[in-house]
Amino acid sequence: MHRALLLLALLLAASFAHANILHVVVDDVIHPVSDEYIGRALDRAKQENAKLVVLELRTPGGMLTSTRSIVEKIVRSQVPVVVYVSPSGARAASAGFFILIAADIAAMAPGTNTGASHPVTLGREESEIMMKKARNDTAAFIRSIAQRRGRNVAAAESAVNDARSFSEDEALQQKVIDVVAPDLGSLLRWADGRTIRRFNGTTVKLQLTGETVTKVELTPRQKLLSWIMDPNVAFILMSLGMLAVWAEFNHPGAILPGVVGLIAIILAVIALNLLPTRFAAFALILAAFVLFALEAKFTSYGVLGAGGVVCLVLGGVMLVDGPIPELRVSLATALAVSVPIGIIAVFLMALVLRARKHRVSTGTEGMIGEIGVARTAIDGAGKVFVHGELWNARSRDSIEPGARVRVAAVDGLHVVVERTE
Question: Is 133 one of the annotated active-site residues of the chain?
């Protein structure tokens, strides 16, 4: 009995330890969340003694710091890594090219392209020497990877120095990649039985027959972070959050706008902390709300409000200084957010100021300033008809019957009046 249970336990353990193929899909800009996602998949592959990790890649590029970290994880991985640019129509541009070159097996689907990895410093004035240093550093990085992987060093370097791009056929002819495969199944069949040379110089023969493919999903936290790290989403969250907090300050006690606004601002700050953010742009965003407040208070015929919209648009466009368009706030988003927020902010502020200036019209305080008529002579005391009622009145002046009076104050059941024209 004990032997049977022990044998069953060993069989179960062997089945759980059975190596498989992990499938990772990166369909986004390369940023810290991508780095974390790929790193978690490689750690899992090591723990499960997987035979292979397939990284299906489609990206316009991304942050160089995250790219270097991903490349480092791939070349140090104890499990062989295939980077596969797929499906047809996809690309692995800029940062994606570095990741493709770093793989044990580099593959592309028909109708895909890669390359265009010239370093970009858009939004910052760089000297020619600094640009040359950045280009040379990036070129040396790609050369070292390509050489260790046995790929065409000159072709790989041309993607950096000359921003060259390759179709899948050109990449195969130039020995930038190893294979063109129409789908994942054909790629795995091609790789089965092949001996590959690892980054550390050792060789491994892939035995993939009968192995199952397990897809590694993003965690809920990673999905949320990946969503808010879109600069356009981060800018929208920041702007709407500030508008909600603005509404809470102008209408204390509403609570809901303050809570929602604070959550939105915190999410935006988390994303902007991971993105290449120009925090000086926050000054323009704050200046926009100041101008919105001034527009509601002073008659500028829309000049202050328009200035606020311009500040908010400029602040949005300058907020994230990414190397590719996908890592920057688009002008269309900045305009679509700024104009409505400007109108709403001015409208809310105008309501607050109008409410503060509006005289109280209920209760005893609503009597102050009312015009009435003296029904009796008032020589210290008398009676007046005001606000549809007959009141006992006091006055420091002598007022004859029928004279018009104005209520200056209310003292209990008496009104203090004064003569008025």
Answer: yes
Rounded (10°) CA dihedral 244, 249, 254, 258: 40
pLDDT digits (tens, 9 = 90+) for 323-357: 888 888 999 999 998 888 888 877 777 766 666 55
Output the pLDDT for position 343. 83
d(CA 241, CA 336): 16
Q: Could you count the other beta carbons within 10 Å of the beta carbon of residue 415?
A: 27
Greatest Cα pair distance in the chain: 120
- Is residue 280 predicted with pLDDT exceeding 90? no
Catalytic residue chosen out of the listed positions 133, 215, 223, 297 = 133
- 410 vs 389: CA distance, rounded Å: 14
Sheet with 91-93, edge to edge strand ranges: 91-93, 113-115, 165-167
Query: Which residue has tokens 């027959």?
Result: 209
d(CA 8, CA 96): 46
Helix axes 231-250 and 256-274, enclosed angle (nearest 10): 150
CA distance 39 to 58: 17
**Catalytic-residue membership of 94:** yes
What pLDDT score does 127 carry?
55
| Residue in 286, 206, 204 with CA at minimum distance from that of residue 238 | 286
Residue 54 contacts residue 80 (beta carbons within 8 Å): no
Cis amide leading into 87 (omega within 30): yes
Which residues sit opposite 83 in a β-bridge?
Answer: 55, 106
| pTM for the whole structure | 0.76
Is residue 68's pLDDT more than 70? yes
| Residue 34 bridge partners (DSSP) | none
How does strand 105-108 pair with strand 81-85?
Answer: parallel
For the record, the structure tokens of 375 come out as 């029904």
List the catalytic residue out of 69, 77, 86, 94.
94
CA-to-CA dists, residue 142 to 95, 135, 154, 297, angstroms: 11, 11, 10, 58
